Amino acid sequence: MSGTTVTGARFMHEPKASSDSRLRIGSLFSGYGGLDLAVEHVFNAKTVWFSELNEPVARVFARHWPDAPNQGGPYPLW
């Protein structure tokens, strides 16, 4: 293609200005969220949901990730 400059496949992986292109995490057997915190830090990721049945532990997780709904609890956490 004449006049078109493309460096490898870089153009395919350019994030759109309006979208959040971070890795999204769903957390099973979440506990207090130590592993989730590490994964978020290392991979620049975002935890979008979690699953924890232990109510006191799930409350701690929900406090640190208020936008991530608990998919495993039969009770409201907030």
Characterize this entry briefly:
GO terms for molecular function: methyltransferase activity. By secondary structure, the chain is an alpha+beta fold.
Describe how the helices and strands are arranged.
Elements: E1 24-28, H1 34-43, E2 46-51, H2 55-64
Parallel strand pairs: 1-2
Word description of this protein:
With 78 residues, this protein is of the alpha+beta class. The protein has one domain. The protein is 26% helix and 14% strand. It contains 2 helices and 2 strands. It has helices spanning 34-43, 55-64; strands spanning 24-28, 46-51. The chain has a two-stranded parallel ribbon. Helix 1 links the parallel strand 1 (24-28) and strand 2. The chain starts with 23 loop residues before the first strand and ends in a 14-residue tail after the last helix. 17% of the residues are buried.
Helix content: 25-40%
The strand count comes to 2
Query: Judging from the principal axes of the Cα atoms, what is the shape?
Result: globular
Query: Describe the biggest sheet?
Result: 2 strands, parallel
Number of discrete domains: 1
Instruction: Calculate Rg over CA atoms.
Output: 18 Å
**Separation of the first and last Cα atoms:** 56 Å
Q: Number of helix segments?
A: 2
| Overall pLDDT confidence | 79
Uncertain residue ranges: none
Strand content: 5-15%
Strand order of the largest sheet: 1-2
